């Protein structure tokens, strides 16, 4: 591979999960350079920012909490999907059990189209929030439209009978309800001051969303005058759609208020996705900083031997630096707003990202280097500023030097029972411990060997080794025993899964699949009112208290 490629940040090789060196082909390197617009041998010089020696905010000393997919935690009052009122109640429940944190999925906004994307890691915007999470009845002005809401609510509550969440139906019903309330109470107290505080970002988001209602989300196919947020045609269309723009700002205001209320019940650990949808608002807003036609993913590893293609556009690292990292600052700052902690999805993206070129398979990409020195400094500064600790999802292919630099900045490592050969009692102190993540099998799926990916069945020995339980033991008992072991881990934070506590076989997401699996669409098997008294949930909470977490 050429010196020019290396100069622009394309890594000549990486070491795969089998320990072999995977070389970057010249064709792949040339495609990446073309996407960067690399017309010279060396990238443009950029003035480096001063790097203060600040560390991230300190994490709890010895805490535990639940990890929850909020859409899946439905109460009997939910409109077919878990919402921010359910989050508030869940936080109250967890706190009463002795938990001090609650890890939740990303809450990013989706486009206002009839088909709603269920994946919370593939959003239109990482800064703004998903309409589906609003509790309609708690929006001020709902009482003025009680007659209209009554029929919509009855239809929405009926959706709770099916475990498979119908995002499209929820969107239709909540949209009708919110539009009715907006007509009755379009200017609640505090709205105007909040809107001013959000600046140009909110105006761009509301404008994009209003235009997408007419032209769809594929903004590259919009009329030419609308394809860039700074075009005069966008300003003209914004004036024409002033009422819809106002509506979408109003929705975001109420989402922010409801999330703020939920955050008062328990310390939320909010999730920062590694990217966003190619056809969404963030891609439209930041298009000048993106690498055209490239996709982000991950090379093959033990759990995903075919590699992963996430379909998200990467930022050009040189353009990102020239823009003073504004998109990164905005994302971290907004996600930390109502949080006690941040979880950075695929934290290695601060160092390097795996770019997949057009037409290539997920395993056929190459790593591109990012300005980690500056990104880590910004992360630490924002963490310190908001008093929000940071957990980095450092799973997969991670070089030891990366973990050392994360540790220097006070970022907690992620340690999983499924991955670690060492016993939990020997895990690093500066870590968050768990059994798995949303992308990995559940305890029941492995113990019962009902996990559809048979390549993962070998994990059963880890449960046998850590619990000592024989075949035939109910999976909830196995989960309780495994979390009893994790409760004694050296990790500062231990996270327990409701799927494990309830003995659920299906995992939240199977990477590499879409319509083949009900990814991101399965509710928990019990409503929140029953989860509060569930034996498995209570036993895991007791094991954490017994370990003095």
What does this structure look like?
The chain is α/β, with parallel strands linked by helices. Among the domains are: 1-57 and 273-334 and 343-385, no CATH class; 114-263, no CATH class. 38% of the residues lie in helices and 12% in strands. It contains 19 helices and 16 strands. An 8-stranded parallel beta sheet has the order 13-10-7-4-3-16-15-14. A hairpin with a 5-residue loop joins strand 1 (13-15) and strand 2. The radius of gyration is 23 Å and the shape is globular.
End-to-end distance: 52 Å
* Strands, total number: 16
Gyration radius over CA: 23 Å
What's the tally of helices?
Answer: 19
Tell me, briefly, the overall form: globular
Residue share in helix:
25-40%
What tags apply to this protein structure?
single chain; 549 residues; alpha/beta; four-stranded antiparallel beta sheet; 19 helices; 38% helix; globular
């Amino acid at each position: 591979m050429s010196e020019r490629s290396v100069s622009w940040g394309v890594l000549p090789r990486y070491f795969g999960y089998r320990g072999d060196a995977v070389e970057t082909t010249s064709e792949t390197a040339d495609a990446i350079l073309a996407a960067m617009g690399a017309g010279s041998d060396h990238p443009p010089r950029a003035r480096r920012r001063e790097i203060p020696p600040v560390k991230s905010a300190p994490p709890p000393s010895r805490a535990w909490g639940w990890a929850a997919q909020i859409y899946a935690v439905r109460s009997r009052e939910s409109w077919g999907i878990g919402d921010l009122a359910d989050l508030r109640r869940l936080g109250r429940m967890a706190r009463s059990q002795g938990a001090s944190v609650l890890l939740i999925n990303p809450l990013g906004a989706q486009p206002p189209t009839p088909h709603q994307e269920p994946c919370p890691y593939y959003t239109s915007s990482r800064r703004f929030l998903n309409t589906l999470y609003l509790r309609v009845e708690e929006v001020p002005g709902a009482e003025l439209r009680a007659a209209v809401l009554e029929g919509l609510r009855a239809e929405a509550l009926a959706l709770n009978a099916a475990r498979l969440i119908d995002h499209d139906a929820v969107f239709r019903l909540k949209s009708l309800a919110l539009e009715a309330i907006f007509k009755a109470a379009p200017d609640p107290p505090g709205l105007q001051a909040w809107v001013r505080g959000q600046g140009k970002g909110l105006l761009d988001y509301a404008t994009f969303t209003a235009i997408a209602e007419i032209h769809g989300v594929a903004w590259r196919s919009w009329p030419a005058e609308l394809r860039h947020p700074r075009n005069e045609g966008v300003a003209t269309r914004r004036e024409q759609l002033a009422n819809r723009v106002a509506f979408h700002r109003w929705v975001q205001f109420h989402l922010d208020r409801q999330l703020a209320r939920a955050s008062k019940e328990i310390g939320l650990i909010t999730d920062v996705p590694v990217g966003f949808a190619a056809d969404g608002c963030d891609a439209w807003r930041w298009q000048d900083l993106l690498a055209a036609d490239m996709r982000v993913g991950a090379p093959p590893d033990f759990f995903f031997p075919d590699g992963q293609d996430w379909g998200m556009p990467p930022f050009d690292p040189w353009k990102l630096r020239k823009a003073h990292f504004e998109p990164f600052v905005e994302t971290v700052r907004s996600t930390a707003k109502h949080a006690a902690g941040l979880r950075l999805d695929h934290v290695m993206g601060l160092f390097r990202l795996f770019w997949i070129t057009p037409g290539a398979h997920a395993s056929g990409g190459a790593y591109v280097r990012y300005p980690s020195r500056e990104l880590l400094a910004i992360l630490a500064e924002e963490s310190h500023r908001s008093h929000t600790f940071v957990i980095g999802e450092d799973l997969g292919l991670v070089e030891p030097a990366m973990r050392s630099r994360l540790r220097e900045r006070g970022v907690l490592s992620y340690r999983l029972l499924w991955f670690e050969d060492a016993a939990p009692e020997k895990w690093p102190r500066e870590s968050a411990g768990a059994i798995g993540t949303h992308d990995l099998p559940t305890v029941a799926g492995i113990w019962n060997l009902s996990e559809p990916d048979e390549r993962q069945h070998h994990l059963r020995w880890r449960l046998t080794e850590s619990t000592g339980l024989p075949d035939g033991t109910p999976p909830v008992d196995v989960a309780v025993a495994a979390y009893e072991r994790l409760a004694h881990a050296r990790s500062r934070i231990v996270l327990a899964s409701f799927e494990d506590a309830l003995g659920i076989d299906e995992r939240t997401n199977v990477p590499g699949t879409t319509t083949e699996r009900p990814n991101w669409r399965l509710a928990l098997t019990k409503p929140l009112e029953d989860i509060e008294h569930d034996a498995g949930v209570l036993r895991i909470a007791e094991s954490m208290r017994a370990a003095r977490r």
